[in-house]
Amino acid sequence: MIGPTGMDGLTIRLAKPSDQSELRRAVVELQEHERRLHATRLPGEAIADAYLAWILAQAAERGAVFVAESPNAFAGFAAGWIEDEANIAETRDSTRFGLVSDICVLAPYRGRRIASSLLEALETLFLRDGVSRIRIGALASNAAARASYERSGFAPYEVVYEKLIGPAGG
């Protein structure tokens, strides 16, 4: 638990089982936001339960889910864990990294640097586990998320390009 950060009494803490419904609501909001940005995203209600279960299982094994709370109100969350990838072309410190899988700040709380506080909580966790790199992804069209990550010290690492060459499937 990180405790109050001084911003409107904001607290960053580890998620508890009692946060499940708020985490689900945030997953739906995040998915719907990304769905407005790219046609490949499925409806939030359709994926929320399975996706949240996957996030929680991954985080329980090698990471954490942090919750941001304003006094008596859920403001958002971030989930992340350590990834170990086999890649003979990269250094060990590059193939073992902290992955921020998801971060969501609910609409009424945006613009208060809550995302930065959540990212700092994950950074502290990863540093404690000897990780020297953190990675996070964003849709190319999600300018607000990319700007937030860059304000928090992230820089582009790899860029993935996409070209639709046939009818879009559903």
Name of the level-1 CATH class: Alpha Beta
- Oligomerization state: single chain
Query: What structural class results from the helix and strand content?
Result: alpha+beta
Q: From the coordinates shown, what is the CATH architecture?
A: 3-Layer(aba) Sandwich
Structure description:
This protein has helices spanning 20-37, 44-62, 92-95, 114-128, 143-151, and strands at residues 3-4, 11-14, 63-70, 73-84, 96-105, 134-136. The longest helix has 19 residues, at 44-62. It has one domain (3-151): Gcn5-related N-acetyltransferase (GNAT) (Aminopeptidase, 3-Layer(aba) Sandwich). With 170 residues, it is an alpha+beta fold. Helix 1 packs across helix 2. The model has no long low-confidence stretch (mean pLDDT 92). The protein is built from 5 helices and 6 strands, in the order E-E-H-H-E-E-H-E-H-E-H. Helices cover 38% and strands 23% of the residues. The chain is globular. A hairpin with a 6-residue loop joins strand 1 (3-4) and strand 2 (11-14). The protein has a 6-stranded mixed sheet.
Top keywords for this entry?
6-stranded mixed β-sheet; single chain; Aminopeptidase; alpha+beta; 170 residues
